[in-house]
Design a protein that fits this description.
With about 140 residues, the protein is mostly helical. It has helices at about 1-10, 10-40, 45-70, 80-105, 110, 115-135.
Length: about 140
C-alpha cells in the first residue's frame, strides 16, 4: 500500500522524500562522527564539528543522493559535481542558520523555544538544498 502511494507521487515529490531521508542519514553520520571525534580522538567540538559536517556528513549525503535520489540525473565530472553539491549545501546551511537567527532575534516564541526556530531554519534550508541539488548539482548534461 505504501509503495503504491509512493509510486503515485510525481517524480519531484518522490525525489524530495528520498532527499529528506538521505539528509536524516547524513545527520546521523555527522552527529556520530562528531561524538566519536570529541569522545575518542580528543578533538575540540569546533574542529570536530567542521570535520564531521563538511567531510563525513556532506560526503555521505552527496554519495547517497548521487546513487539513490538523483541516480538518473547525474553527469559530468565527479569532482565538479561534488564541488557544486558542497557549494549548494554551504549556501543552504547559511540560509538555515540565518532563518533561525532572524526568528530567535525577532519573535519571543522562537527565543523561548529555539528548537522551533531550528526546525523552521532546517525546513527552509532543506527546500533550498533540494532545489539546488535537483537543478544545479545533479542536472542532466
Amino acid at each position: 500500500m505504501l509503495e503504491r502511494l509512493y509510486l503515485s507521487l510525481p517524480l519531484g515529490q518522490r525525489q524530495f522524500l528520498k532527499f529528506s531521508l538521505v539528509g536524516g542519514i547524513g545527520f546521523v553520520v555527522d552527529a556520530g562522527t562528531l561524538w566519536l571525534m570529541t569522545r575518542f580522538v580528543g578533538l575540540d567540538p569546533w574542529t570536530a564539528g567542521i570535520i564531521s559536517t563538511f567531510v563525513f556528513g556532506m560526503t555521505t549525503t552527496w554519495l547517497l543522493n548521487r546513487s539513490f535520489t538523483f541516480r538518473d540525473q547525474r553527469g559530468g565530472q565527479i569532482w565538479a559535481e561534488y564541488l557544486r553539491f558542497a557549494s549548494a549545501n554551504i549556501v543552504g546551511n547559511l540560509i538555515s542558520v540565518g532563518v533561525f537567527s532572524l526568528l530567535v532575534a525577532t519573535f519571543s516564541l522562537f527565543y523561548h523555544y529555539p528548537v522551533l526556530g531550528k526546525v523552521m531554519g532546517v525546513g527552509v534550508g532543506l527546500i533550498f538544498n533540494f532545489t539546488g541539488s535537483k537543478y544545479f548539482v545533479f542536472r542532466r548534461r
